[in-house]
């Protein structure tokens, strides 16, 4: 299994379908804060006229991706097919699942494969440990990268100049009273993670939650994602968790290196 090289492609404006871009903006306008939207609310949110927003919404209703009560609109479960198309067509997320299953069986902890996208970490594949912590980080979940152990591992792999550019552009929000929101401190911690080759976070996004992560690299040394485990901080000490999980994660990452 090899991973294709990613190419930077310059696309001429005449080759872009603006309606498709705006349609995706319309779908992603729905979130935890705006589960339902009127045409007027959507128009304001995605910079459309009210009539154009209404046509987009009615089109989504027509193809089954949205529903309406005549005033408000909301997405239907059919939208999940869009994400499923990626999981079904991308070989790497599917190929990693058996490795996650073995890790979960070995460690009795939930395991994840994640990638960096912009300022967020995206959980792509996950195997839950039976009768263990369920964090809600299901495939497709996005978290601010600095709050996640996988996100920090991925950020730490950036060159210093790119890392400083990231820090200049991101707003650090305190999700708990222990979240690191000082950019100089975060930079130092990310450099330390790069040197250690693994990351452990506690209480950064949610009190009582610990994450442990290592990078996954290809045979050519290209970073392709992060492996991580999730557990409660009360399950054992930080040192015990590191001693038990880091070697297993690194061994799995080294095995994956031969496959990607």
Explain what you see.
Residues 78-260 form the IclR-ED domain. This is Bacterial transcriptional regulator family protein. InterPro entries: GAF-like_dom_sf, HTH_MetabolicPath_Reg, Tscrpt_reg_IclR_C, Tscrpt_reg_IclR_N, WH-like_DNA-bd_sf, WH_DNA-bd_sf. Keywords: DNA-binding, Transcription, Transcription regulation. Residues 17-77 form the HTH iclR-type domain. The protein is α+β, with helices and mostly antiparallel strands and 260 residues long. It has two domains: 13-80, Arc Repressor Mutant, subunit A; 90-257, Beta-Lactamase. The chain is built from nine helices and nine strands. It has helices at 18-28, 39-46, 50-62, 80-89, 91-107, 149-156, 160-169, 183-196, 238-257, and strands spanning 37-38, 66-68, 72-75, 110-117, 120-127, 142-144, 199-202, 209-217, 223-232. It has a six-stranded antiparallel sheet with strand order 6-5-4-9-8-7, with helices on both faces. β8 (209-217) and β9 (223-232) form a beta hairpin. 29% of the residues are buried. Residues 1-7 have low confidence and may be disordered.
């Amino acid at each position: 299994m090899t991973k294709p090289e990613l190419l930077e492609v310059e696309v001429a404006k005449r080759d872009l379908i603006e309606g498709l871009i705006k349609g995706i903006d319309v779908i992603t306008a729905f979130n935890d804060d705006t589960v339902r939207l009127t045409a007027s609310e959507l128009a304001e949110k995605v910079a459309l006229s009210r009539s154009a927003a209404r046509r987009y919404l009615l089109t989504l209703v027509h193809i089954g991706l949205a529903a309406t009560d005549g005033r408000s609109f909301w997405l239907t479960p059919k939208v999940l097919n869009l994400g499923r198309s990626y999981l079904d067509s991308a070989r790497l997320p599917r190929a990693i699942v058996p490795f996650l299953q073995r890790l979960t069986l070995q460690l009795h902890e939930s395991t994840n494969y994640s990638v960096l996208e912009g300022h967020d970490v995206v959980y792509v594949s996950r195997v839950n440990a039976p009768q263990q912590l369920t964090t809600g980080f299901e495939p497709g979940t996005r978290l601010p990268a600095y709050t996640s152990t996988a996100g920090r591992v991925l950020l730490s792999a950036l060159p210093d100049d790119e890392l400083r550019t990231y820090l200049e552009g991101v707003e650090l929000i305190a999700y708990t009273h222990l979240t690191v929101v000082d950019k100089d401190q975060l930079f130092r911690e990310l450099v330390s993670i790069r040197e250690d080759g693994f990351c452990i976070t506690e209480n950064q996004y949610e009190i009582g939650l610990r994450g442990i992560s290592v990078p996954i690299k290809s045979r050519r040394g290209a970073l392709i994602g992060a492996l991580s485990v999730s557990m409660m901080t009360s399950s054992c000490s930080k040192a015990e968790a590191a001693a038990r999980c880091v070697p297993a994660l690194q061994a799995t990452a080294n095995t994956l290196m031969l496959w990607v």
